[in-house]
Design brief:
This protein is α+β, with helices and mostly antiparallel strands. About 6% of the residues have low confidence. The chain folds into 4 domains: 166 residues, Herpes Virus-1 (2-Layer Sandwich), CATH 3.30.40; 34 residues; 92 residues; 286 residues, Neuraminidase, CATH 2.120.10.30. It contains 12 helices and 37 strands. The chain is 32% helix and 29% strand.
Amino acid sequence: MAAARKLESLNENFLTCSICMEGYKDPCTLTCGHTLCKGCLGKILKTRQDAIRAKSLPCPYCRQMTRVPQPDRPVEEWVKQIKPSLLMQGLLDTLACGKNIDHGLSMTCSDTENRCHPCQDLGESHPANSYCQDCDVPLCERCVRIHASLPSMSNHVIADLGGAVKVTRRQRCWEHNEVMDFCCRDCNKAICPKCCIIYHRRCDSVDTIQSMISEMRSVLTHNKGLITQSFDDTGRSLQQHRSQIDEISHNKDKIKSQIRQASQKAMDVIKQKEKQLLEELNEMTEKQSGQLRGRIESGEIDMQMYQQYIEYITQVLKSGSETDMFDIYQMCQSGAIKEATDRDVTFTSSIADTKLIFISEIDEDKLHKDVQLGRFQQNVCGVMDTRRGKIQSSTFDVMCRPVLHKTVGIRVDGDREQPDPRDVTVLVVDLEETLVVSDYNNKCLKSFYTKNNISRHSKLDLASHPYTVTRLSDNQVAISFWPHNVIVIVRVTPDLVLESRVTTKKAYKCLTAMSPSTLAAGCWDPPCVDILDVSGRVMRSVSRYNSRKNLICSPCFLCATDRGNILVSDAVSHTVYCITPEGGVVFTYSLTGERRLGSTRGITTTSTGDILVANFSSHRVILLTAAGEFVRDLLTSQDGLQYPCGLMFCDWKLYVVEYSGDAVKEFNCSIPQ
């Protein structure tokens, strides 16, 4: 009974896998000394992508990694490459032996397995308390010392019977086959005594490894602390990423619900329109059908009368009565029969005129563009609207009083002329707000940004005078050169890098981006607004002739709207108008008197769709509604404005460049929400 209890205790405390809580099945011992079932270890490996990347097997106890001997093999075979734990398997076999045979034989089997094999070979019997994992034999204390002293076995791993490493490997010099007990600090390598004499006698610092134990422990402890800190930081970072994934998933479900609600609202509107049309159709057809039913009743009465006439005439002709025939003859001569026939012709003619037709007002070619359920925005340093090239994150207050926040000087080293900025745009590159300004006089493009709390700038020299600049994508701008037939694409990093030079068939004075691959370009000769791709190919042209109104004269600045239309600031006609890419006119603004536009320049839109226009000669920036109606003067000369040229509204800020000025003025127009 006592032996059975011991076997049960051994099975429970030493031969049970702590993962599956069952007896070891195909046990293996890792380099850290812990033993696991190979199946359990394989399941853990599947959940540890970091271990797979490190080509190692993770220990769930101490987190130490065991390198895979052949990592180029499939992951499923990694666990099979670990040597089996013969000690544990032997104990399991012993336990099975104890369960299947009598008690005395079991004790003899167990006692034999726990004896030192080398001593048994010598005819001695000593209890084994250690185990050589390389030789697969149990050893006593004396044999362990002998085993470690032999050069051929000095590298073997000696473990106690519990699986923990007891004697570690003593590395030997490959050249002299002696234990490397010394360390050359100058060369940072372990060496043997002969290496000290032969190769390192001129080195200043050679110590014994034993004397460095305290230092090594300190360094290892310090590095362990650093690694542990990195481990904890990485764990927190991963947890944060997992939380962010949960938030993204939650936000996805929320937006999905909003999209469905928007779609349902659109369908409700369409259903309501359908209901109204069907009710109107029922009303109109019922009215027409009622009129026709009344005429049918009248016609049926006439048919009865005609039937009576036919029967009467037939009888008269059959009877041969001269008196009756004369009476009928008088009726025919009086025109009574002819009047009835004419009335019937009028009746059938009116039926043909009552046909109802349905005229659809849906343009199927535009349906895919004009039906808008909504759009997505990302709040990173403001919301970047990729179609309009603007940053939007707050609602523009039409009654706000703009306040000059700061001025950004654009004069830089290397300028030979007085700076003459013509246009400005704003990008967010690497989370840094970057101003991009075209300098007409100095034939260059300039960018201004702040990095590490230091104001920086970049300058890109160009072959000719740049005019307008428009944002193509998050890190691309396009520049027009008038009167040259060229458009330049520049990458903003936020430093400026010339990306491509596009030759065009016309000289374009102004540009605006309709999408990252499509531009609208204004031309003076001939007067038109062309839709181009980034290779310069004209996909569509809108002129004064196909716009149905004699509008397009001298487009100076352009701006794309949220609805895909084009705002045009016409310098010579002193007009602002909005056209569709197909040539339709949405609105025009051209007043006289005090509100008469002088020479119009820059044009931009706000986060609410309102329109801002630079009135060059009157030193004003005027505010229009999205429908082109005058609201008020947003900025005047009293605000320090002189000859405004290019405009750019982003977030709640308005950027203004002045003709022949040396700075970009930034005005705060509202409080961000």
